[in-house]
Structure prediction request, 485 residues.
Amino acid sequence: MAKFGELNVQCSMISMQFSIKKIVIAFYFSLLTFDFFGQTITQKLQKAFTTFEKDSQLKHAISSLYVIDANTGQVVFNKNSQVGLAPASTQKTITSITAFELLGKDYRYKTGFYSPRTDVTRLNVMPSGDPTFGSWRWRWTSTDSIINSLIVSFNKSVIGQVRKIFIDNSGWDYENIPDGWIWQDIGNYYGAGAHKLNYRENQYDIILKSGNDLDDSVRIVRSIPDESKILINKLEPKLISAKKGSGDNAYVYLPPDKFDNYKIRGTIPVNENNFSISASITNPEWVFSVSLLSRLQKEKGFDGGRGSYEVLNKSLIDKSNSDLVYTHYSPSLDSIIYWFNKKSINLYGEALIKTFAYEKNGFGSTDSGVVVVKKFWKEKGMDEDELNIVDGSGLSPLNRVTTHAQVAILKYAKTKSWFPYFYNSLPEYNGMKIKSGTIRGVKGFCGYHRAKNGKEYIFSFLVNNYNGSSSALVNKMYKVLDTLK
Prediction:
C-alpha cells in the first residue's frame, strides 16, 4: 500500500511537471506569436519588395520604398531611402506643403489694372504670377468672367479708347522654362512655363482631322480660343493616322519665345473629325491682350486690330497719376493646391516656386525659389542634399529626391492645422490617398494610408529606369503597397 501511495505521489509530481512544461511552452510560443505578428507588416513588405525587385521590368532599374508608422514615426520598411531618385510629379507634395507653410492657406494672387490719367488710350497691367488667371476651373477666373469684370469696371469714357496694353514684368524672371525640361514637353500643355502674367493656364487647344486609312495625313482644323489662330498658322503638321483606339500620340515641338518652326509630330486614330490636343502658349501676355482688345472692339465698335501690347521689365504703376480700374483676386491657396495635385498641373508648381522667391526676396525666379525651398527644410532639420531639385513641378528629369525626405515632409504636414486641405488635394489610387508621378522611365507614389486594423502609414515609393509598360509596372507597385492594407 505504501508503495502504491508513493507511486500516486510520483505520478502527481510528473503530471504537475508536465503541466508546468505545457504552460511554459505555451507562454514561449505566445511570445513568438506576438513577435511574429508584431513584425508581420515589415516581413510581408520585405517579401513583396524582394519579389518586385526580381521582376524583369526592374532588371536595370533602381527602386526605393520607405514606410513609417504615421503616429509614432517608427520605420516600418526601408530600402534605398537615402538614394536620390527622379520623383516626377510626386515632387508636387513638397511644393504644396512648402506653399502652405510659406504663403499660408488663405494666400491670394492679385492682378491690378490701372488707367494713367495722362493717357486714356493706355491700360497698365500689374500681374503677380497668378497661375489661375483665365483658368476655367473656377467661375470667376474664366476668360469671359475676367474680361466681363474689366468691361464693367472701365470708366464709360475710357472703355472705347484703350488701344495699348502694357504689362509690368518687373521683379519677375522672364525666362519661364526651368532647367532640364525637354523639347518634347515644352510645346505641350503640361510643359507651359510660368510668366508673371499667365492666361488660360498658358495653353490652347488644337482641333485635328485624321484620314480614313492608316498613314493618311492629319490636318489642323482650328484652334481654341480664337485668338490662338495665329499660332496654328505657324504650325507644320507632320501627323499621320494610326489604328482606331490608339489614342493621343501627337506632340507639339517648338522653340520657346518664337513663332516659327513649330511642328506637330506623331499620330492620332483614324476617322477622327474633331480630335483635340492641347499645346502650350509661350506668350500668354499677347493672347490676353488680343482677347481684351477684341472684346473692346465688339463693345464700342473700334478697330481692335489697331491695338498693341508690350511687356516691360520695369514698374509701370504711378499710383499718384493713375486710377485703379479693377483688381482681380485668385482663389485661395488651399483651392489652388487642390487642383495642383488633383490634376497635376505643372504650371501651378512653377508659379508657386517663383512666388516663394518673389515674396521672400522681391524677385521671382525658379533658381531663387529652389534656394528658398531647400533653406526652409534645412531649418527644419533636413539634409538639404536630399532635395536636389531644379523646378517646382517635378517635370524636369534632373530632379533628385530621397524617399526619406518625402516621407519626412509628409509627416511634418500631418501635424499642421492646414493638413486637411492638403490631404483632400491628394488623388485616390489603389484605395490610398497618394500623389502619383510619371515621366519617361520614372514612376512614383507617395502619400498616406489607413489599414483595416486602424494602423496609419506614410510612404514614398519611387522607381527609376524601368523597362516595359508603365501600366504593368504600376500594377506591380500596387501589389507591394497592398501589403499595407
Observations:
- The mean pLDDT is 89.
- Residues 200-280 form one domain.
- The longest helix spans residues 2-38.
- The radius of gyration is 30 Å.
